[in-house]
Amino acid sequence: MAGRKQFLLRIDPALWRELERWAADDLRSVNAQVEWLLRDAVRARRGGAAAARASRGRATDPDATPPSTDEH
């Protein structure tokens, strides 16, 4: 596995406290919580972009999951 990229993040103290609480609830460090949040946001963005491409008939991302056509 490649090394991890480090970067400095300046964050509002109130937001930091919220992240600490959330991380503790999920049994993660704040660093792991922030990384999880970023991964989740990227995954959601990719899913939204893939759905938009598919609706235009241009699903070009081989990793993208096609939108469901099941109607309940």
Which features would summarize this protein structure in a list?
72 residues; 0% strand; mainly alpha
Give a written overview of the molecule:
- With 72 residues, the chain is mainly α.
- It has a domain at 13-55.
- The chain is 54% helix and 0% strand.
- The chain is built from 2 helices and no strands.
- The longest helix is centred in the middle third of the chain and has 26 residues, at 30-55.
Alpha carbon gyration radius:
17 Å
- Give the % helix: 40-55%
Average pLDDT figure = 83
The number of distinct helices, counting runs of at least 4 residues, comes to 2
Order of helices and strands: HH
TL;DR?
This protein starts with 12 loop residues before the first helix and ends in a 17-residue tail after the last helix. Helix 1 crosses helix 2 (30-55). By secondary structure, it is an all-alpha fold.
